[in-house]
Write a structure and sequence with these properties.
globular; 15 helices; 8-stranded parallel sheet; 382 residues; 11 strands
C-alpha cells in the first residue's frame, strides 16, 4: 500500500449528465457510475437538459432525482436566457424557503453563443446576470464565444469537412468573449469562471485578470490538453466539441497555464452522445461533445508518471504535473470556487503502477465510446 496514492474523491465541476429529457444518451445513474470508476465523487451538472434548469421548480426536480444516486454527490448549475430566469435565481438565493435547494446550486451558467441546448444569453441578459450575481456573490461560469465572430466565420468558411469545425469557431471568438466578460467583472465584481478554456490568448487574459486581483478563475478540459486539430483525421466527428480542438500552440499554452497557476481546475465537460448520433448525417451537423469523466484521472496520472498517453503525438515541452497538482486542480480549487463544502469527501485509493488500455467498451457511460480509444495509461482506482 505504500506506493498507492490516496486522494479525497475528485471533483469534476463541469459535466452533462443528461437527465431529465436526454436520458437515451445517459442519466444520473449511468454517468455517476462512470464518474466513480474514474475516482470522481462530486460533479457539477450543467443546465442544458430538457427542460433546462432555469427555474426553481426545474432545479428542485433535479435535486429530487439525484437523491437516488448514492455513489456520487451531484450539484447543479442554474441557467438563464431571460430576465424571468434571473428573477428565479434571485429568489433561489434570497428566499429562505429555498435554502436547501440553494445549497445544491453551485452558481449560474451562461452560454454567450449557441451550443448544445441553444441556451444563448443575449448581451443585455448577460450584463444583468453579472450585475445580479455581483450583488449576491453568486459564481458565474460562462461558455465564452463571441456570436458575431462565429457568424462571420460561418459566412466565410464553406464546406462540410469536420476539420472546418475549428475554423467556424475560431480562437478569437473565445478571447473576445472572455475580454468582454472580464470587463463586466471589473464593473460588478462578480465571481467569474471561464469554462473549458482552449486558447493561448484566453490564458493570457485570465493571467492578466489575476494580476489585477480580479475574481476570475478558469478550467481546462482533458480533450484540449491532449488533442489538437491533427486528431480530426483519426477521430472524425468524435473529435467535435465546443469550443473546438485547436492548434498545438494553444495546447502548449494550456499546459503552461497549469504550470504557472493561471489554470485553476481541470474539468471534463463530460457530454455523452450515442455513436450513431455522432456518425449520422453531415459531419458538421453532428452533436458536439465527448465523454471524459471516467478517463480524466488516468490521463493525468500518466503525465504525472512522466509519460505521455497520446500514441501519435509528442509530449509538449510545457507539460508538467505532479499528484499534488492533480489534487489542487481536481479537488481543492473547485471546492473553493464553487463552495462545495467537500471537507468530508470520501477518499479514493489509486495504484499508480497499473498500466492499462482505454477502451470504449469498458466505459461505464451509456454512450460506450471515448476519444482516447486504445491509449495506454498508468494509474487506476482500486
Amino acid at each position: 500500500m505504500s506506493n498507492y496514492l490516496n486522494f479525497p474523491g475528485l471533483i469534476d465541476c463541469h459535466v452533462h449528465f443528461r437527465e431529465p429529457g436526454l436520458t437515451h444518451k445517459g442519466d444520473m445513474a449511468t454517468e455517476a457510475a462512470a464518474a466513480k470508476a474514474g475516482g470522481v465523487l462530486t460533479v457539477c451538472d450543467m443546465p442544458n437538459t430538457v427542460p433546462p434548469t432555469q427555474t426553481v421548480v426545474a432545479l428542485k426536480d433535479k435535486i429530487e432525482r439525484a437523491k437516488r444516486i448514492t455513489n456520487v454527490d451531484i450539484h447543479f448549475f442554474f441557467g438563464a436566457t431571460t430576465i424571468n430566469h434571473l428573477s428565479q435565481l434571485t429568489d433561489l438565493w434570497t428566499n429562505l424557503e429555498h435554502a436547501s435547494a440553494k445549497r445544491r446550486c453551485c452558481g449560474l451558467k451562461l452560454y454567450l453563443d449557441h451550443s448544445t441546448g441553444n441556451q444563448k444569453a443575449d448581451p443585455a441578459i448577460a450584463e444583468e446576470a453579472f450585475k445580479i450575481c455581483g450583488e449576491l456573490n453568486i459564481p458565474i461560469i460562462a461558455h465564452c464565444e463571441d456570436p458575431k465572430i462565429n457568424e462571420e466565420a460561418a459566412n466565410r468558411v464553406k464546406g462540410d469537412d469536420i476539420v472546418l469545425h475549428s475554423r467556424l469557431r475560431p480562437p478569437e471568438s473565445e478571447s473576445e468573449s472572455i475580454f468582454k466578460c472580464i470587463d463586466l467583472v471589473r464593473r460588478y465584481e462578480t465571481p467569474f469562471h471561464v469554462a473549458h478554456l482552449s486558447t493561448a490568448e484566453g490564458v493570457n487574459l485570465v493571467r492578466q485578470a489575476k494580476k489585477e486581483k480580479l475574481p476570475v478563475t478558469c478550467e481546462v478540459t482533458p480533450h484540449h490538453l491532449f488533442l489538437t486539430i491533427d486528431d480530426y483525421q483519426k477521430l472524425g466527428t468524435l473529435a467535435k466539441m465546443n469550443p473546438p480542438l485547436r492548434e498545438q500552440r494553444h495546447l502548449e499554452a494550456l499546459w503552461e497555464g497549469i504550470a504557472d497557476g493561471t489554470v485553476d481546475c481541470i474539468a471534463t465537460d463530460h457530454a455523452p452522445h450515442l455513436l450513431e448520433e455522432k456518425r449520422a448525417g453531415v459531419p458538421l451537423q453532428a452533436p458536439s461533445g465527448v465523454p471524459g469523466v471516467e478517463t480524466m484521472l488516468p490521463l493525468l496520472l500518466t503525465v504525472a508518471a512522466g509519460a505521455w498517453p497520446h500514441p501519435h503525438s509528442d509530449r509538449p515541452v510545457t507539460c508538467n504535473l505532479t499528484p499534488k497538482d492533480i489534487l489542487r486542480l481536481c479537488f481543492t480549487n473547485p471546492t473553493q470556487i464553487f463552495r462545495l463544502g467537500a471537507d468530508d469527501q470520501p477518499r479514493i485509493t489509486v495504484d499508480p503502477s497499473i498500466e492499462w488500455t482505454i477502451k470504449g467498451s469498458d466505459i461505464h457511460s451509456r454512450c460506450q465510446w471515448t476519444p482516447y480509444e486504445g491509449w495506454k495509461v498508468k494509474g487506476k482506482v482500486v
